[in-house]
Amino acid sequence: MSGQMFYKDEFSAYLKRRSFLLRIGLITGGIFLNSCYKKIRSAKYNIQGALQGPDANAGHLLRDKLKLPSAKNTRKVKTLIVGSGISGLSAGRWLKKNGETDFEILELEKHIGGNSYFGSNKIASYPLGAHYITIANNDDALLIDFLKEIDVITHFEGQLPYYNDYYLTFDPEERLLINGAWQEGLIPDFGVPIADKKEVRRFLAEVDQLKNTRGNDGKFLFNIPLNSSSTDENYRKLDKITFEAYLKEKGYRSKYLLWYLNYACKDDYGQKISHVSAWAGLHYFASRRGMAANAAQNAILTWPEGNGWIMKKLAEQLKAHIKTSNLCYELKPISNGNTLVTVWNTKTQLTENIEVEKIILCAPQFVNNRLLENFNRNIDYKAFNYSPWLIANITTNELPESKGVSLCWDNVAYNTSSVGYVNAAQQHLNLSEDKKVITYYLPLCDFEPAIARLAAYSRNYEQWLDIVIPELEVIHPGITKAIETIDFWVWGHGMITPAKDFIWSKNLEKAKLPIDNKIFFAHSDLSGVSIFEEAFHQGINAAKQVINATS
Ligand SMILES: Cc1cc2nc3c(=O)[nH]c(=O)nc-3n(C[C@H](O)[C@H](O)[C@H](O)COP(=O)(O)OP(=O)(O)OC[C@H]3O[C@@H](n4cnc5c(N)ncnc54)[C@H](O)[C@@H]3O)c2cc1C
């Protein structure tokens, strides 16, 4: 049993309870990031909005292992899922699909969805994290089944899936601001010297060939989910060098190409080519080969609320099983072979014990490290590094334009810190010409993650404006006076970094193993690549393991 004796009499109970709440920051408000909307106004910019993020108090409680009040009761649940991100919801969906009814999904936040959470205001819904997936690889039967289930794939024409036209990105899709004008597409082209263009073409031809190459075991070299990729050592060894070293060795020097590759790695991994492995860098380009009856290869699927839409679809059948505002605090083995899980309800502020037969931890490994202090997992948690991100949802009356291609769904500027912005309104059917909400993505990768994270947590609203506004002014000169609101969201541990020697390391292999056939793991960080598809498959794999272990 965790916690300490707490409620002796009413008064001491009040005092102790208050001091506990003070310690976890619930009363002082000293830790300012959480998911509640609190409006702040910047006089300097005459802009208002909020500064939010995942529940910092809960994180603090776990990190410092503050003692909880004792639990008053213990109840039983057959299978507990911790975390309602894509991996947790996917695990729940699989259990339900296979006839399991006795399971619960606990989520520490007031809302479900993890990094696929979203927001909305009177103009539009918008993503706060994950915002798109590409059409499924045709050999990914489980994902294709799910996309059929939720009407993203409406039917098949011959062998090829037909995707719901409402969910394919509406045209125009992507543009890049380079050399003073917006060009179509994100690969630098406008004003780019011939020699650089040749190098870009050489790289694209190389990854195109890799995309269609199989290893000595007959599997594609790079595939989604990652664990269906070839084990061919000739290619797996690319995980032991950085993408930057690989590109240098191959003689790629064009500043335009290197900018594009840095952009791609920042976009998918939150880090530059110097910080991801060559295997991961190539995976971005060579793993997606989805074909459709009505869309180009690798076409993008998106919704106004980003992947929040697909997350809600996953959760639709699971409502009765989900409990939000429930922080899983600790796991303990008990003598009857079950596991005792201590849970802190952030709303009622009460502790509860749940005795479970099986548990699927769908939280990131830095959290599991805290939860599993009573177990010997024997892995190196320090190898798990997460990139912090800032997301800014900007409501503006106007987007002053430079010459060239007009507003697209994805809008990126060459040589800026961010990876650009998406225009959430693009997927709305009632497109409004006046007000827009644009979602701007800034990976915080100029310093090591721990330092960047600390700096991100320390900045106030106006300091974020000082970072974001100058870049917006480069992209859309004069925009500041047209902005109505900017809402910031900070992800301290946004995406797992596929650093060199991480994805195919013994450490990650060990981290995926269940403990005593009772504690199972599913989170995108266990794939090494933080994308919807990996979280989706992680959830299914863990649920399958639970079902097998039970039978
Ligand atoms: C800025 C950003 C942009 C992204 N863009 C894309 C994109 O466009 N496309 C894409 O495919 N992917 C994108 N991703 C990756 C995204 O992370 C994955 O697609 C997916 O949402 C990850 O799901 P998950 O279940 O693995 O993890 P998470 O989303 O991290 O879910 C874990 C859940 O566990 C909960 N939890 C943690 N600890 C506890 C505890 N102790 N008790 C109870 N609950 C707990 C958390 O609150 C969270 O809800 C993006 C990520 C970020 C940060």
TrEMBL record:
InterPro entries attached here?
A: FAD/NAD-bd_sf (IPR036188), Zeta_carotene_desat/Oxidored (IPR050464)
**Is Membrane found in the keyword set?**
yes
MF term (GO), any = oxidoreductase activity
Keyword terms of this UniProt record: Membrane, Transmembrane, Transmembrane helix
Residue ranges annotated as transmembrane are: 20-37
* The protein's name in its UniProt record: NAD(P)-binding Rossmann-like domain-containing protein
From which organism does this entry originate?
A: Pedobacter suwonensis
